[in-house]
Write a structure and sequence with these properties.
The protein is elongated and about 90 Å long. The chain is mainly alpha-helical and about 325 residues long. It folds into 2 domains: about 200 residues, Cation efflux protein transmembrane domain (Alpha-lytic protease prodomain-like); about 110 residues, 2-Layer Sandwich (Alpha-Beta Plaits). It is built from 9 helices and 3 strands; from the N terminus they run αααααααββαβα.
Amino acid sequence: MSHRSLQLITLCIGTLLMAIKFAAWWLTNSNAILSDASESIINIAAGVFAFYSLGLAAKPRDSNHPYGHGKIEFLSAGFEGGLIFLAGIGIVIKAGYNLLYPQNIQHLDLGLYLTVFSGVINYVMGHLLERRGRLASSLTLIASGKHLKSDAWSSLGLVVGLLIVAFTNIPVLDSVVAAIFGLVILYTGFSLMRKSVAGIMDEADYQLIAQLVQVLDQHRRPTWIDVHNFRVIKYGATLHIDCHITVPWYFSTRDSHAEVKAFENLVVEKNELPVELFVHVDPCEPDASCRICKKTDCAVRGAPFSDHIAWTLDNIMADKPHSS
């Protein structure tokens, strides 16, 4: 099943769940259930934009978009986060109003059954979307999955809160529960917007870079004297990596190309995501490079090997060759 097909199914199920939640609110007159139902409107709006974004992100690169269309996924996540954030504000305001002017709650048992049902479905769909999104490195699917799972946990908390209302017969607790989950929704929306902005601004993903560095250090060749100015940018599901690699200064263009090709093959082989690399070749420096070079058959070595330098997040990202 394609990502768009999965998102479309989620959208249809979300529309049905929204109708169920509003039916539960209409039966119970519960402000907490209304807050849960109102967020479903946001789910639908965000789902429509996510469906469009997945289609656009899947388009191949063209002359106007040489790096592809994957950046739309960050906009999709930011749009969804913004809508969730606005929904949270509305829920908190409505809850505050009803703290001052409480409403009577009725048919609470049926409302709870409907809320539990919608919460379980949301969690299952959210788990499926998030799992598929992580496998495909799709921020749009991950954001949709997290949204649905947070909606499910909100429904669970809402049910707990309404059970307290039922046992204590204190209607004002309904609005307290709504306010609490309004704040949770605000946090979820802010987190998605923060991640979206980080992606649009090409913020470094240090966890991802650290994983790549570990692989490179474990499988490095003696002819790869150092790697520096290492940068990673993500466009949708594709990683664009550029870096400098230092090789022996006497290597021919063909020899240097072979080293770069081996370097690229290693990165591609050890990474599940599509990878595009741009590697700049630097010649080694006499003495300084010799002390960290493990190439034992070098005929022009100016100094003996004396210092093994492990590749780390700090030295591989620095814009200068390594030295002892």
